[in-house]
Amino acid sequence: MSARGRCAKVLPSELNKVCPERGDDPATHPKKMSDFEVVPNLQQSSSSVSKSRRKAHFPAGSNEKENLISWIPENIRKKECTYFVESSQTSDSGRIVCECGYLREQHLDDAAKPPIFLGKEWDPSRHIQEMPTDAFGDIRFTGLGQKTGKYVRVSSDTPPRVIFHLMTQHWGLDPPNLLISVTGGAKNFVMKPRLKNIFRQGLVKVAQTTGAWIITGGSHAGVMKQVGEAVRDFILSCSHKEGDIVTIGIATWGTVYNRESLVCPMGGFPAEYVLDEENQGSLSCLDSNHSHFILVDDGTHGRYGVEIPLRTRLEKFISEQTKVKGGVAIKIPIVCVVLEGGPGTLDTIYNAITNGTPCVIVEGSGRVADVIAQVANLPVAKITIALIQRKLSVLFQDTYELFTEGKLVEWTKKIQDIVRSRQLLTIFREGKYGQQDVDVAILQALFKASRNQDHFGRENWDHQLKLAVAWNRVDIARSEIFTDDHDWKPSDLHPVMAAALISNKPEFVKLFLEQGVRLKDFVTWDTLVYLYDNLAPSCLFHSKLQKVLLEEREHTSKAPRLQLHHVSQVLRELLGCSSQPLYPKPKQAERPRLSIPVPHIKLNVQGSSLRSLYKRSPGRVTFTMDPVRDLLIWAVVQNRRELAEIIWAQSQDCMAAALACSKILKELAKEEEDTDTTDDMLALAEEYEHKAIGVFTDCYRKDEERAQKLLTRVSEAWGKTTCLQLALEAKNMNFVSHGGVQAFLTKVWWGKLSVDNGLWRVVTCMLFFPLLYTNLITFSREKRLQPTGCLARLRAFFTAPIVIFLMNTLSYFTFLLLFAYVLMVDFQPRPSWREYLIYFWLFSLVCEETRQLLYDPDGLGVVKMASLYIKDFWNKLDICAILVFIAGLTCRLIPSTLYPGRIILSLAFIIFCLRLMHIFTVSKTLGPKIIIVKRMMKDVFFFLFLLAVWVVSFGVAKQAILIHNEERVEWLFRGVVYHSYLTIFGQIPSYIDGVNFNIDQCSPNGTDPYKPKCPETNADSKTPIFPEWLTVILLCLYLLFTNILLLNLLIAMFNYTFQQVQEHTDQIWKFQRHDLIEEYHGRPPAPPPLILLSHLQLLLRRGLLRRPATRHQLKEKLEKNEEAALLSWEMYLKESYLQHQQSQEKQNTEQMIRDIAQRVDALAELLDLDRVKRTGVVEQRLGSLEDQVHQSAQALRWMMQALRGNGFSSGEDVPAVGSSKALETKEIGLEGRAEESQPPYHVLARHLLYPGSHTLRFPVPDEKVPWEVDFPLYDPPAYSADHKDMAVQDPFSLSLESLLKINYNTMDGLIDRQSFHGLYAVQDGLPLNPMGRTGLRGRGRLHCFGPNHALHPVVTRWRRNLDGSIIRKSLKKMLEVLVAQYPLSDVWALPGGSLEPGEMLPLKLKWILRREFWPQFQNLLKQGTEVHKGYLDDPRNTDNAWVETVAISVHFDTQNDVEMKRLNSFLQGCDPELCIRWQVLDKRIPLHANHKQLLHKVSTLLGAYY
What we know:
Layout: H1 12-18, H2 48-55, H3 63-75, E1 77-81, E2 86-90, E3 96-98, H4 124-127, E4 128-132, E5 136-141, E6 148-155, H5 160-170, E7 178-184, H6 193-210, E8 212-216, H7 222-237, E9 246-252, E10 268-273, E11 292-297, H8 307-319, E12 322-325, E13 328-331, E14 334-339, H9 343-354, E15 359-362, H10 367-375, H11 385-395, H12 405-420, E16 425-428, H13 438-451, H14 459-471, H15 474-481, H16 494-502, H17 506-514, H18 519-522, H19 525-533, H20 540-555, H21 564-575, H22 627-636, H23 641-648, H24 654-671, H25 675-702, H26 704-712, H27 723-729, H28 733-736, H29 739-750, H30 759-767, H31 790-798, H32 801-824, H33 833-854, H34 862-871, H35 873-893, H36 898-914, H37 916-920, H38 926-962, H39 969-984, H40 1028-1081, H41 1091-1104, H42 1120-1147, H43 1149-1205, E17 1278-1280, H44 1296-1299, E18 1307-1308, E19 1311-1312, E20 1322-1323, E21 1326-1327, E22 1337-1340, E23 1346-1358, E24 1368-1369, E25 1372-1373, E26 1375-1381, E27 1393-1394, H45 1403-1408, H46 1414-1423, E28 1425-1432, E29 1441-1452, H47 1458-1468, E30 1475-1480, H48 1489-1502
Parallel strand pairs: 5-10, 6-11, 7-8, 7-14, 8-9, 9-11, 14-15, 15-16, 17-22, 23-29
Antiparallel strand pairs: 1-4, 2-3, 5-6, 12-13, 18-19, 20-21, 23-26, 23-27, 24-25, 26-30, 28-29
């Protein structure tokens, strides 16, 4: 305890201890004392000096730590004792300590003798001062692996907002969806193993599933230890990052053992903490399983409970925050979980219940928890002091002697108030039906509290649903919200549906769809814009959208707002150019207007602002073409698998949707940088391809013709494209290679011919067309395809794609043969007619390529069509061949370049021959082999890079060693590259080893252009002088690496490519077969050069006649009725496919094993529960038996008393019959029993904290309320407020002299001191409350002793529909009541209040009404019905002053009542600070509790619903 960081001067050794990050290196120790004088500078942390010193502790780049080091001392303080006063108590070691609990040396240097404090007593408010905190950073528990958390030492007066800011902004915690405050015993206690496991699993489950924070006391003992071990067990069993649970320990700094290791003015990063339970003594160690610690300091040592006020304030502050996530905004709910506990725990429960916080009491954990659990089901009247005393004697056996009579009274009063608020109290009992898990009990407690909370209209149900969505607990939503208690309209679920979509909660989306949400009504343009506005920033689609907006911003003056045409622009890039924009850009006049700005869309617990998005006038709502498509795209672009699967199951055009999703995902995967996300996208794309295949398979099995229509049907929803086109764009080879798709392509390939015709028959008829009129060729069996006449038969044959292909093939072979003949035989200086025919033929080919380039059926534009044309490999080959031919022709026509022209034309011939491979791709045998050759060419290309390294390196080295200064470039190339390359194939140079050297075969000086230069030779003998051994070694190494290594590597690459392609070669061939079929399906029937006639016809139709070109696309536009029927059929088969998939999953072996395991676990759980229930039944029967015995004993006692009264006994030797002890164990098994009717005594007037003050009432249990009951302990405090704004008020002092001036039970001047209940007693000059004790003397906040009269008009009318009919509920008419909310008040009230002396109307009522309406309202009151006259249970009541009121019902029976209309007109002109409304009357209306009692009487009087 010596190094507490309190002194301005810290020794180097001490600083090294408290800042372990410095290590033991002497080089890191500061050399000057001034380097350690940093504590005063913490108050001026904005200075450059202090910042530079802080930065010295961390390496460059640690911005997070630097920000924390600069922010914490500026905003968070600690407390120090500045005046040492010797205490009568000593420390554990027997040393003298200060009144604060610290030793003398643990104070500041000047704390021992401050001159200004000499001779004064120690006062915490004066002698404890705040200064910048010196303990914060990361805490690491020594010896416990890598357990590291965050900690900070804070002053007990720290504002909660500062701590919350630290946790969320600097510690990086997300605001919680739920706050779980766990309280209970601070010492270790024993729990049943089963109950312990249930509690641990349930607590962790609710925290992990809802994203909650768990707040405890933070020490390694009692309930805090149980929570820590629960978190530890979960973390050990969970490997993913999402398993982190935020567990915050709020402890007292002065009770933390080994806290000196946490002190470091510059922050501990990390601070090493040793958990030492053996030597902690009366202090406590921190629990190593908590993630964050807030250590509350009040400047004292060893005093527990210091943290409770700050913890209460912090929890209250957090519960008042609104968290917005995924479009849903909720006030963070809080729940208190109680295990075991003592007096402090009871106070915590009482404060929680008083503040409206629901509490979950774990029965069986011991002490306070069991006391409350055992009496929770009893009527409050039966919870007596004697009963509580007996419970305490059993459950507090060790400390029962410490309970004084006053404590028993206080405990009884608090327990009565706790049990009275049953809606906030949940008892978790092991084995209770429907509550097997603690997490369910916690969430049910919150829902029960929410259901019983006062509210207007349906706000309560909305709040519960928002909580369930925020927690992502669909099980709770099913069991607690979507019940028969409330009818949900589909439109009511639209806001939370949007929230569930944004926050990616597929189970809730599925639930809402089951509850009747129609996507057609839900999805509007506004909704879609809102959804795309809320894309995750990390989403690739979001970045692409921002890029589009940025590009548009560069062309416009103002920043564009996201619209759907921006989304469409990105989607068209992903779907391909074959599809039209899904959301066309609207014109300025047609742009849909939003009635509600999109940025205002959000859910709020207090209201329903997002709901307004769906409350537009019908004329302003713009619905989309296909809402399922829109939501599916939105889910897919974010790679949300489960969500997209649920939405796809709702789609009608499901096959096109699946193929489009596959295309989108594959395109996004190409640009995604994260490899894991890329893999997920590709896997999801493959999954959607399989879905499309599955649906198409079922369709094809049912009806081949209708299935093939689905392939070519133009889908308006997906940009006027087709399923086949989408599959081709996405390169879905599995889908295209499907038997049904291939059968369709084969059918297209044969045109109107039957696919059963042999190829030889087609060729024969093509060469001898009169054979068409025989039975050699058969046509399609479909009636619409059968030709009827001779010309039609001829036309049908020659327009079939297969015939066009064969004629073009024959034409192309003829062209190549003629071209070869001209090159080899007939190439004259003057072109012959054969050569002119070749030129003409090539011109027809050029015209056909031009037609293909300009053919634009989808209206994409010339530039886009050119880019698509260039992408095709065979088109590139055609362009290359034509350009080379034109170059050769140009040279050939010039006499001086005739020979070069022939060479270039020869090269063109080679390229034209390579074009033949495209023709062979139609062959099922040769097509796959061509694919393999293309893949192998890529391998060769990459192999040449490796080969070039060896060839060039060996060639250069060989040339440099053998030849000296070869200057001829051609011979350099031969020596370096050509000879080295030939060496690989065995042509080894003869002179390389000097053996076969012949000087006649080379040129000594390199002057002979036809001979290479000779190697280095001896001038005399003409023998080589180069090192032969070196060249031989280089040659051997070269041949070793090239011939053996590289060539075998190439063979291996070829083998791998062959095997890889061979597995999928059939799919690849079937996929590429479509391109050839589509090309010849839209190609003119005449082959080159006769194709020029077709081009001329096309030019005349388009140029002169202006007729649109005939489209030869594999698309079919269906009629609406036919399309609707086809889509319905497809949707039906999709449902069949999904059911088949589910049945297959159930039959899966692994799934069956998992199901069996779950059933076994459930069976074991049921057996355990059955055992627990049987035990409970036995206990219940025993209790019932004891109850019967007690009743029998009472009956016998009555009989004996009756007999004794008649003289049959003298009363001696009468045996004792029965006892009242059986009553102790009587339990009521029905927790949901109806609450007691009207309580017999006033309740609000006995709340311990008097409103508007810090005065605490004396606790008065129910049995001690009547004045007739003896209560010797009763000693209430006195309180009378001074109302300076009141003209008439009684004195606030209780002096007898001033009290004798008051006349009670009569008119005292203008003040009416007469009670409606008759004469009341006066004692010691003070009147006594006729309803009994309240726990407070004086007049409190009331202005008169005795009765304070009030008037409360209850103005009602019938609730009506638009047509004027009265609305009923449960067969009873419903009322509307006039309520008001006054300034500076959070609750609503009836328009009435206290009557000023001599006034007829309350002041608050006058605020509401205009002055000219006061007399008329008085007449209404005279005509009204009096429903209550007498005492009003008011929190302001005291023993000597109370409120008595007259409640008058003013009811307007007809909607045309003149007085009601006048009243409404005068209400509209009232004070603008007031809020007035007609509100539906029911028991949950949010009014003062005593006002609700008056409303109940009015509804009973009128026979209305309540």
